[in-house]
TrEMBL record:
InterPro entries, A to Z: Aminotrans_3 (IPR005814), Class-III_PLP-dep_AT (IPR050103), PyrdxlP-dep_Trfase (IPR015424), PyrdxlP-dep_Trfase_major (IPR015421), PyrdxlP-dep_Trfase_small (IPR015422)
PANTHER family noted in UniProt: ACETYLORNITHINE AMINOTRANSFERASE, MITOCHONDRIAL, AMINOTRANSFERASE CLASS III
Domain of life where this protein originates: Bacteria
SUPFAM superfamilies in alphabetical order: PLP-dependent transferases
Designated name of the protein: Aspartate aminotransferase family protein
Organism expressing this protein natively: Slackia equolifaciens
Amino acid sequence: MRPIDSEGRSYLDFLAGIGVCSLGHGHAVLQDALKGQVERLLHVSNYFYVEHRGQAAALISKLANNDMEGARALADAIAADDEHAVIDAASSAEGEQAWQTFFANSGAEANEGAMKLARLYAKRRGNGGNTIVCLRGSFHGRTLETVAATIQERLQEDFRPLPQGFVACSPNNVEELRSIFEELGNEICAVMLEPIQGESGVHPLSAEFVRVAADLVHQAGGLLIADVD
Ligand SMILES: Cc1ncc(COP(=O)(O)O)c(C=O)c1O
């Protein structure tokens, strides 16, 4: 289904509602799944285990391992509603990492979760630092913490004072990044970046910059946060 604007123009939507509509608009399979769920159960709090959430997490883990065959087998088992086959297909193959997923309501909440995780990781296993390096021209959301991580003056100026603990670096400037780590390495718990910045234009990061960022932050005992919203 194509969205139609107020002038009656119809669109083929490659914007995907900024990341939240990547399954398209009104596809019959999607409609059936949504209707079916609404008829069964609208919402339960996260105090309870939700079967489909567990299955979706297992599927994401397969995909994160680039195990397309395993993901297909799991998706088929889920579609067939075959509990034993789901358990079999969801288990990790030899040498496969079992990834955990934090489900969030929005990109901003996902980024807040990632920043909290980085600080927690640094506290428990890393260097204990709490500084997050973010890139100029970035966009990470509309909550105060994600506005602080969004290094664009025009998006920050009306909301000061902002939460602390963020340092700015220019995208693709490997030298500046290295000097930030030389100065603050022990305090850095994460580098947060969009592989392709989208809000300030379309600015892809170079493979070299991402590699150096990953190496430096891992050596410092922190995490690389990739915001792909
Ligand atoms: C790169 C990026 N990060 C985070 C967000 C925030 O997502 P949300 O609007 O779902 O909170 C957006 C979109 O607005 C985005 O483009």
